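Customer escalation, tier 2.

The customer says the design service returned an amino acid string that "doesn't look like it belongs to this structure." They asked us to rerun it and document both sides in this ticket. The original structure tokens are below, unchanged.
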């Protein structure tokens, strides 16, 4: 007789190696609140056993809010004509990195809308060269700047970046088509191809999904988890969907779960992925914190091991408005790091600045390839 998901979770807590099936995943995602404590305990135990209590701060710098795309959920979509657009200069980006460096941050995520022009990729290459020239391997650079042609990915890799985050948003093609415009720019197949290109050109690959969008089912979320596992990703971040009042998807908010349920689903997805992929990096995202002030702690207690201090200069920050509710915060990484250190120690975890932050999953993968495994 097959085990119930609760029994499997108990066994995982005890050190078992049970595999979660699609049925287990849909059960865990759809059960009442009684599952939450056990799920968090299982994920946290597996995390501590595999990676220990350390939490890596990855400083995020939102380098431009311009975008050629028109995703139906996002405030940066090109159709949002009310948003003042900005591009940080190379000097501004390097100085934001330096600002984080002074506070011990060694892992940096550069994020932007998707821009195919040579100018954008060129300025990112220039930033990467300057970082490599100044700090060498001590700075770990992550990029999340949308779908790019393979040759641009290769150029960025040669300039010194090793990690790339490209969220699939949903692994279900039909849902993907419902939350993106039907034009040649938003093709599910192209996103899959870019994920494959990233893997083939040697990147450490991150992905993730939007949780709680209209029309999404728990079966679809369970398929997302299996997709992420089958793609053997190295990093992941789950965003609960948050309405942006000027985005077309906001009109369908009645078809989405309540915000509290979106937070709960995001935490469950985090915990389940940790159980399925014990040695990857999982980000507690700023979107989670936006919907729940205790989001970072909750994310960490459900298996996340990366926090994201914001390093975008305050004059730009409010305009990087993916969703409603973004607020201004002072440019003070020292204060942010102190608050994160306190959040971590309150739950028995330890913020570990000083690490460029390559995921253990990647390190093991490379070692196994070298050993011919
Ligand atoms: N333009 C790049 C990277 C920046 S956007 C790209 O799309 O890949 C970063 C992430 O913000 C996206 O992956 C998307 O999942 C998330 N996002 C956009 N709008 C959102 C919303 N309304 N709620 C929650 N997350 C959102
Ligand atoms: Fe652009 Fe990314 Fe927003 Fe889509 S999700 S509109 S690609 S910034």
């Amino acid at each position: 007789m097959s085990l119930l998901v609760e029994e499997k979770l108990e066994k995982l807590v005890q050190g078992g190696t049970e595999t979660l099936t699609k049925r287990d995943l849909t059960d865990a995602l759809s059960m009442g609140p009684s599952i939450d404590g056990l799920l968090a305990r299982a994920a946290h135990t597996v995390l501590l056993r595999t990676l220990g209590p350390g939490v890596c701060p990855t400083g995020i710098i939102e380098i431009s809010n311009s975008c050629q795309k028109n995703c139906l959920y996002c405030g940066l979509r090109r159709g949002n004509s009310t948003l003042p657009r900005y591009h940080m200069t190379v000097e501004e980006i390097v100085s934001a990195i330096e600002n984080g460096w002074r506070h011990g941050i060694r892992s940096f995520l550069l994020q932007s809308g998707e821009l195919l022009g040579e100018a954008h990729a060129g300025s990112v290459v220039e930033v990467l060269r300057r970082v490599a020239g100044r700090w060498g391997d001590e700075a770990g650079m992550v990029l999340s700047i949308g779908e790019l042609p393979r040759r641009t990915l290769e150029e960025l890799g040669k300039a010194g970046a090793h990690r790339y985050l490209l969220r699939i948003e949903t692994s279900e093609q039909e849902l993907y088509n419902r939350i993106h415009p039907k034009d040649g720019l938003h093709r599910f197949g192209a996103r899959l191809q870019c994920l494959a290109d990233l893997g083939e050109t040697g990147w450490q690959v991150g992905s993730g999904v939007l949780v709680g969008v209209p029309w999404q089912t728990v079966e679809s979320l369970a398929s997302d988890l299996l997709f992420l596992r089958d793609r053997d990703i190295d990093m992941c971040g789950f965003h609960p969907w948050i309405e942006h009042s000027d985005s077309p998807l906001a009109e369908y908010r009645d078809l989405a779960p309540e915000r509290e349920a979106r937070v709960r689903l995001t935490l469950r997805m985090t915990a389940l992925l940790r159980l399925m992929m014990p040695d990857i990096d999982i980000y507690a995202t700023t979107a989670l914190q936006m919907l729940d002030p205790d989001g970072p702690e909750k994310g960490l207690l459900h298996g996340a091991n990366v926090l994201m201090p914001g390093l975008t200069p305050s004059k730009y920050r409010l305009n990087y408005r993916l969703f409603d509710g973004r607020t201004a915060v002072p440019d003070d990484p020292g204060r942010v790091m102190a608050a994160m250190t306190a959040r971590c120690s309150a739950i028995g975890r330890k913020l570990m600045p000083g690490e460029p932050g390559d995921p253990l999953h990647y390190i093991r993968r490379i070692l196994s390839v070298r050993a011919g495994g």
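Tier 2 assessment: The sequence is consistent with the input. The longest strand covers residues 54-64. The chain is about 45% helix and 10% strand. Sent an explanation to the customer and offered a walkthrough call.
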